[in-house]
Design a protein that fits this description.
Helix content is about 30%, strand content about 30%. Strands 6, 7, 8, 9, 10, 11, 13, 14, 15, 16 and 19 form an eleven-stranded mixed β-sheet that branches. The protein has a five-stranded antiparallel β-sheet with strand order 4-3-2-1-5, with no helix packed on it. The chain has a five-stranded mixed β-sheet with strand order 20-21-24-22-23, with helices on both faces. The longest helix is centred in the last third of the chain and has 22 residues.
């Protein structure tokens, strides 16, 4: 029904003429220009209207509005509709909205509505008036995109990237290219953590075996070193962005599908509680809500191991990192909403994100001697004299520097940066424009997987580093680049984050890091 509603909306969006109620007239102050049409929105500064010329945005300071649809210019209230992921909407967004209100001297009151809906009313106590209403529809990533396409949402909360079919519908509906960097942002980071009951003897699982569990090809704990008992798989409901992210990132690259009996859960809390009670259960839980379960190490045939800890998630070294997106249509939002979105990237907001149990986006610097797991992985795969020489060169170059937690990765089979990395480009560019790294050297370091000749991998890694450096420079238009030394380096396959025997491992290993001196 949602898909049908969205398709109908997309089909009708561009229809002009008698079907539209003519409820406002905008007239220039000298009377020379007059526009009549339907008011689609008002952000306190600009009218958005559907006219016989199509959809128009008009500055309110230059026109007079007449008709029953005209809003008040003096008592304007910003109205925002936010829809999508319950993981984001139940805790994180309310916490950020309350933090924003406190920061700006506003009061924020939460009002319950019907099931899965609530409203935040922001009031200016100095003027004793309401300045904003944020209506939340907390369901799933799927529902969020459906609401946006049906013009029932202004912001989508998503635990996965927008899919091609949704992109096409959004473009057809006049919402712009939602894959463009300006149409989405990463609010925070979550991760999919494999968890079992505390008394389960299994402590680790490889990505290959995890995919076999998900596809129904691994059915007995004995294959993982556990008891002779059936594996019971626990996942979020099928419409959950976290659950869909599992399919997109773990199964589809290897042309696998979810199969077998799956215990589905409506919330992250319900999932972790069910796994904690099930001695033969395994689930993929949100990093923010593993409850009393036992998280498993990720391991591989090459001997690497990695834990789903905050630092590994923040750098995206952990292969199952799940960015938490906000998607925005190509239309002007009210000033209050724009100020809130700007706040979500501020330092105070990053503290709120951490307190809510998620991984924030504030850049951190990590010295080489605090990266034991990474160095252990590098030593484990170094082969022969050339491998050892490459490792020694890498340590020699990096030892006096510190790694920035901002990393860059690429879409599968593509030179295009993935959605998280496109957001990282904007974040790093803003830091350069603000002068945060003036007087320092930033080194964009390229790495590759271990497939193919080492010389070729080194060249590919260098090309990736050059591409990321160029993207950051292009985005940082207002930065004084004479104050910063931006260079590139490459070490090819010298420091893998995962084994190269899987599609996911190779994808994680193809990356560009930023190191500082």
């Amino acid at each position: 029904m949602r898909a049908f509603r969205a398709a109908v909306f997309a089909a009708l969006f561009f229809v002009a003429g008698p079907l539209w109620a003519q409820d406002i007239t905008l007239r220039s102050r000298d009377g020379g220009i007059e526009l009549t049409g339907t008011l689609l929105g008002f952000d306190g500064e600009f009218y958005r209207m559907q006219s016989r010329f199509g959809e128009l945005t008009v500055d309110s300071s230059g026109v007079l509005c007449e008709g029953p649809g005209c809003p008040s210019l003096t008592d304007f209230v910003a109205e925002m509709r936010v829809s999508g992921s319950a993981t984001i909407g139940e805790v994180l967004m309310p916490a950020l909205l309350e933090g924003f209100a406190l920061r700006n001297g506003l009061s924020a009151a939460r009002e319950p509505m019907e099931a899965r809906r609530f409203r935040y009313i922001l009031t200016d106590p100095d003027e004793d008036r309401v300045v904003g209403r944020f209506d939340f529809h907390v369901t799933s990533t799927d529902e969020g995109f459906a609401d946006l396409l049906a013009d029932e949402a202004d912001i989508v909360m998503a635990l996965r990237e927008i899919r091609p079919a949704e992109l096409r519908l959004a473009s057809d509906a006049g919402l712009g290219d939602l894959a463009h960097p300006n149409r989405s942002r990463v609010l925070a980071l979550d991760a999919m953590i494999p968890v079992v009951a505390a008394n389960n003897p299994v402590d680790a699982i490889s990505l290959s075996d995890l995919a076999r569990v998900l596809s129904g090809r691994l059915r007995n704990w004995r294959e993982l070193g556990g008891p002779d008992a059936p594996v019971v798989l626990h996942l979020r409901n099928a419409s959950s962005g976290l659950s869909q992210g599992i399919e997109d990132r773990l199964l589809r690259p290897s042309k696998l599908e979810l199969h077998g009996e799956i215990a589905r859960h409506d919330s992250n809390t319900a999932l972790s509680r069910a796994v904690a009670r099930d001695p033969f259960g395994i689930g993929l839980a949100s990093y923010s809500e593993i409850g009393n379960t036992k998280p498993l190490y990720l391991t591989g045939s090459c001997g690497f191991h990695l834990r789903g800890r905050r630092a590994a998630i923040k750098t995206e070294d952990y292969p199952l990192t799940a960015p938490m997106f906000l998607y925005l249509p190509a239309r002007r939002l009210p000033a209050l909403a724009r100020e809130f979105l700007a706040y979500t990237r501020s330092s105070p907001a990053q503290i709120v994100i951490r307190r809510a149990g998620f991984v924030d986006q504030a850049p951190e610097e990590i010295p080489l001697n605090q990266q034991g797991d990474r160095l252990a992985n590098a030593v484990a795969v170094a082969e022969g004299e050339d491998g050892l020489a490459g490792l020694q060169r890498m340590v020699g170059v990096m030892a006096p520097m510190r790694r920035l937690t901002t990393s860059f990765r690429f879409e599968p089979g593509s030179a295009r940066l993935d959605a998280q990395s496109r957001s990282n480009v904007q974040q790093l560019a803003r830091s350069l424009e603000a002068g945060e790294y003036d007087g320092r050297r930033l080194v964009f370091v390229g790495f590759s997987d271990g497939q193919g000749p080492a010389v070729g991998n080194l060249e590919i890694a260098r090309e990736r580093a050059d591409a990321v450096r160029a993207a950051v420079i292009q985005t940082a238009e207002a930065a004084d680049l004479d104050r910063i030394d931006l260079v590139t380096e490459a070490f090819g396959e010298a420091m893998p984050m995962a084994c190269d025997d899987t599609v996911w491992g190779r994808q994680v290993n193809r990356r560009v890091e930023v190191w500082l001196r």
